[in-house]
Specification:
The complex is a heterodimer. By secondary structure, chain A is mostly helical. Chain A has twelve helices and no strands. Chain A folds into two domains: 222 residues; 37 residues, no CATH class. By secondary structure, chain B is of the alpha/beta class. Helices cover 42% and strands 26% of the residues of chain B. Chain B contains twelve helices and 14 strands. The chains are: A mainly alpha, B alpha/beta. The structure holds adenosine-5'-triphosphate (ATP) and magnesium ion (MG). The site of magnesium ion has 5 residues of chain B, from helix 1.
Chain lengths: 288, 332
């Protein structure tokens, strides 16, 4: 049996597949992780529909008797100039795709910690799967889960009234998934990196809770960069979520002024950096 | 070197944790096809030794060759030829026994058809076929051990490592596990290295035993050799005149103790030496009413080399295991 040959990717799918089997065995967890982004969509996206601020009913200034079309026209203009689209809901919905990916990818480290605590890892480490592939397999599983969940969020958003740009093509969706894939790969690897030596799921949870909101709010998920104070903007330009949001809004909503090359280059660099780092660190961090 | 070429060779194998020397310059030679036991109490360093031999732990010092490959320089090659059944349970509780085996098979890159055949065969062997589709969560301790054994065999390893394969199991289940292991050995002729603190197990199933204590190997040999090494068989004589008999024995260079109304002494090579002694006793007019010759137990061997009885070690090890199992349950 020792003559069996192993390719450089040996074991990645095997490891990922185990995670996925465990995942779709428990549809409850799948459902639970969808609650947050869908709630955000429904409550925040619908209630905070900023477009309503600039309509004739809310923008009626006493004494100044402007015709309502003018005001509506003005409102649309403001929305377009700030958000790049006329309805805030679509803007937010695009941001929620990155949100669910962040939310799902952060969990990647947990399975490693459990495997270590329950002794499964000791078993995995005596098989011919390279250390790097053990963790990359987990990363891949996390990416697949993230993309599946993102698809559900996208579907819900469409049902709730998300509007795409005119002349949308299949290529735009492909690009959207590519952006989410790169974001997820980078984030999953990052959180696995944090879990490489850890045995404490409590501390991993703490880290997750500590960084998820800041990561979200220092990105353009809720409002565009132009609306941010300068210091926040300076942080947001480093946040990979900013780039996936921008790419997706450019592709799906037709938000103008989007530099797709920059977005994808940044996301690819982010994914490559952390996946590479993870593979490298796993080699010596997993052995004792 | 017993039985063919070497499957495992270790020289000066050492593992240091901070200031604790968990394994201290261990030398091992395990021949191809041997069933080799590492016998020792809690904390002796058995698991740590197995960890280094199975590429899980990096030795602080020393070398080990397993299946012809160096565990530090060619760990990937070592991993291909070994099977490991760790002390802890390692099956995924959320998956069924079948799924666990298929997962293990995929880690070894075994093609699906072959994996299915092998998994079915192994489940059959450890008598878990009926529970193949049941989640491991609901397996009993004995069932889990059997599954672990099957998982360690999925890649048809040349060398199998078993770390306390029967820890915490009742007597029947232990016997069952050993009957599977023996069958394996007969069928596939693999080399087996197991750790245990059950002396009977080492005595019954091992071709050779290494007694380990505080990180060191204090004695290696076949069960026979180990027992012989502590001064031969134990002879118990019931005689009419104890004092006179003792005198006769002393003149033959034997130091006998009185125990429970009988004389007890150790005798090397009893089958040839005993007739001489009986002749001498009867020559002095002493009547021998009853006579018993027994082999020394491994317990006595163990006491001789470690200064401790293994019975105590055994109890505390089972406690530790029970504690771990409780903790594991508590988390879910
Ligand atoms: N990761 C570690 N860090 C520090 N000390 C360790 C570590 N692993 C083991 N030890 C120590 O090394 C010694 C040997 O442990 P080991 O688990 O090898 O013993 P063992 O013979 O397998 O015992 P048992 O019968 O309880 O399984 C013990 O004193 C243990 O506390
Ligand atoms: Mg042990």
């Amino acid at each position: 049996m020792s003559s069996r040959r192993y390719g450089p990717l040996h074991g990645i799918w095997a490891v990922a597949n185990r995670e996925l089997i465990k995942w779709y065995k428990v549809p409850f967890i799948m459902g639970i992780s969808l609650v947050q982004p869908v709630l955000w969509l429904a409550l925040f996206g619908k209630a905070m529909n900023l477009g309503n601020l600039f309509t004739s009913s809310s923008l009626q200034i006493p004494g100044l008797d402007l015709p309502s079309q003018v005001i509506d026209e003005l409102g649309r203009d403001i929305m377009l100039r700030v958000f790049g689209v006329t309805d805030y809901f679509s803007f937010l919905a695009a941001g929620m795709l990155s949100f669910i990916v962040l939310f799902m990818s952060m969990n990647s480290g947990m399975s490693l910690i459990w495997d270590r605590r329950l002794g499964v890892l000791n078993k995995l480490l005596t098989t011919p799967v390279p250390r790097s592939n053990l963790v990359i397999g987990k990363s891949v599983a996390s990416v697949i889960k993230s993309l599946a969940q993102a698809s559900v969020v996208l579907l819900v958003a469409v049902l709730l009234g998300m509007r795409f740009r005119a002349g949308l093509s299949a290529l735009d969706f492909l690009g959207t998934y590519l952006a989410l894939f790169l974001l997820s790969m980078g984030l999953s690897s990052l959180f696995l990196l944090l879990a490489l030596r850890s045995t404490s799921w409590e501390s991993q949870m703490m880290i997750m809770n500590l960084v998820n909101m800041p990561l979200l709010f220092t990105s353009n998920s809720f409002y565009p960069l132009q609306m941010m104070p300068w210091w926040l903007r300076d942080v947001a330009v480093f946040n990979p979520i900013t780039y996936s949001n921008e790419a997706i809004r450019g592709l799906l909503l037709g938000v103008p002024g989007v530099n797709l090359y920059l977005d994808f280059a940044y996301l690819a660099a982010f994914a490559a950096l952390f996946t590479g780092l993870l593979a490298l660190m796993a080699r010596w961090m997993l052995s004792r | 070197m017993p039985e063919g070429s070497a499957a495992i060779v270790a020289r000066g194998l050492t593992k240091v944790y901070g200031r604790l020397v968990a394994v201290d310059h261990v030398d091992l030679d395990v021949g191809e096809g041997e069933v080799f036991a590492l016998l020792g109490p809690n904390g002796a360093g058995k698991t740590t030794t197995v960890g280094m031999l199975t590429t899980l732990l990096r030795p602080t010092e020393g070398t080990a060759i397993v299946g012809g490959y160096d565990v530090v320089r060619e760990p990937d090659m070592v991993r291909r030829v070994i099977g490991v059944v760790p002390q802890e349970y390692t099956a995924d509780e959320d998956l069924s026994g079948w799924e666990n085996l298929m997962f293990m098979a995929s880690l070894y890159g075994i093609p699906r058809d072959e994996a299915r055949r092998r998994a079915a065969e192994l489940l059959e062997m450890v008598e878990l076929s009926r529970f193949a589709r049941v989640k491991v969560e609901s397996y009993s301790g004995g069932m889990r051990r059997r599954l672990e054994l099957a998982m360690g065999l999925i890649n048809s390893p040349r060398i199998l490592f078993l770390d306390e394969p029967t820890l915490g199991l009742d007597v029947q289940t232990r016997a069952a596990i050993w009957s599977y292991i023996r069958r394996l050995k007969d069928e596939y002729g693999m080399t087996i290295l197991f750790t245990t603190h059950y002396m009977e197990e080492a005595d019954l199933y091992a071709t050779r035993i290494a007694i380990m204590d505080r990180g060191r190997i204090v004695k290696v040999g076949t069960p026979r050799e180990l027992k012989d090494s502590i001064g031969g068989d134990v002879v118990t004589l019931n005689v009419d005149n104890m004092a006179a008999a003792k005198e006769v024995l002393r003149s033959a260079g034997i130091d006998a103790r009185e125990y429970d109304g009988s004389l007890v002494f150790k005798l090397r090579d009893a089958s040839t030496a005993l007739p001489e002694i009986l002749r001498a006793l009867m020559g002095s007019g002493i009547q021998v009413r009853r006579m018993e010759v027994s082999e020394p137990t491994m317990d006595e061997v163990y006491l001789e080399y470690t200064g401790r009885r293994l019975r105590d070690a055994q109890a505390s090890s089972e406690e530790a295991f029970a504690l771990r199992a409780t903790l594991r349950r508590a988390r879910s």
